[in-house]
Write a structure and sequence with these properties.
Helix content: 10-25%
Number of domains: 2
Number of strands: 19
Low-confidence stretches: 17-26
Number of helices: 8
Distance between the termini: 72 Å
Largest sheet: 7 strands, antiparallel
């Protein structure tokens, strides 16, 4: 019996040794792809940066980040490019992606839900044909506690919605009540948290329902006609031109949320699920930008991702958030909705 136990112990130790060697090889071996993916995924989260720092030195992390980044154009949206209502109903389409958007759902003519699927991800895109019906709505206890997306949709008489701002989430204990950055509603700054350490850009809709992306101040954005907006980034496409992406973009692979608009005025809500092996791992900024280009996106901003990424239709969350709650949902400070 003692000999058998010794053999079992030896086998277990051997397996552990092999696992350690494999992990060491992946972390420090000659193949940089997995190392870069691991580091960029970890350090661009709000609360999981330690996962990279427990394995790699700061110099190694910085070397990886220096080779993987999104370089934005620095331009602001030229809203004159957007011609709202100039939708081609001829029945002839440039691609299958154009056909998916332009052929409407007879049961829901105001929007169309389009499933998205790639090699490692799943998600949804919502095409909204009338941008004047897109609004930014807030938790009813701003600064104190957020609400689930589906609650925000229902209480504001919305048809559907998508998450918007990031929020203060120290040690993943945030309750979604405190947005990061600037929030503009009805042409006024209602929240200013520029000291939270994250600065992307201001992204939202003007009074004439065009998606404006700008690196200017909140006051500059309001002077330019911004009605509702949040601060986040990066800007993936501005005026039809994609950001320069080096390596994997420096953001790793994760759940994503994107707000976008085509030249014909059609607004797109895009959410990719992630962090769920066997279902959907997530998407990189490279893949995400290519996906948006297939659908002729003219302007697009990356919004808060991770466990916050979600789309709800009425009182039902149709995506699969990866949070720690029973449903995977997290409380959020605000949302873009279709009314």
């Amino acid at each position: 019996m003692k000999i058998k136990k010794k053999k079992k112990t030896a086998i277990v130790l051997l397996i552990l040794d092999v696992c350690i060697i494999i992990c060491f090889f992946l972390a420090y071996g000659p193949f940089s792809y997995l190392r870069e993916l691991y580091i960029t995924t970890a350090v661009t989260t709000m609360t999981h940066k330690y996962l990279a720092r427990t394995i790699y030195t700061e110099d190694m992390i910085q070397d990886v980040l220096d080779g993987n980044y999104v370089k934005e154009s620095g331009e602001s949206t030229d809203t004159s490019d957007i011609v709202i209502g100039d939708i081609d109903d001829s029945g002839e389409y440039d691609s299958v992606y154009d056909e998916q958007i332009l052929t409407r759902d007879s049961e829901h003519p105001e929007y169309k839900l389009i499933p998205l699927k790639g090699s490692n991800y799943k998600g949804y895109m919502v095409a909204i044909y009338d941008p004047s019906r897109v609004e930014l709505v807030m938790t009813n206890k701003l600064g104190k506690i957020g609400q689930f997306l589906r609650e925000l949709v229902v209480q504001n008489n919305g048809i559907l919605g998508m998450n918007a701002s990031g929020f203060v989430d120290t040690n993943e204990m945030g309750n979604g009540g405190e947005p990061t950055g600037i929030v503009i509603q009805d042409g006024k700054v209602i929240w200013d948290a520029t000291k939270t350490g994250y600065s992307g850009g201001i992204a939202g809709f003007t009074k004439d329902n065009k998606l404006l992306l700008t690196k200017g101040s909140a006051m500059d954005a309001i002077k330019a006609g911004i009605e509702d907006a949040v601060e986040f980034g990066p800007f993936l496409i501005v005026n039809g031109n994609a950001a320069e992406i080096k390596g994997n973009g420096g953001w790793g692979i994760a759940p994503r949320t994107v707000l976008a608009q085509r030249k014909d005025g059609i607004v797109l809500f895009v959410v990719i699920d992630g962090r769920q092996p066997g279902y959907s791992v997530g998407i990189s900024m490279v893949e995400l930008t290519k996906l948006l280009q297939r659908y002729k996106v003219h302007n697009a901003v990356n919004l808060d991702g991770g466990a916050s990424s979600s789309i709800a239709i009425g009182n039902k969350t149709i995506t699969k958030p990866c949070g720690y709650s029973a449903t995977g949902e997290r409380r959020i400070p605000n949302a873009w909705i279709l009314k």
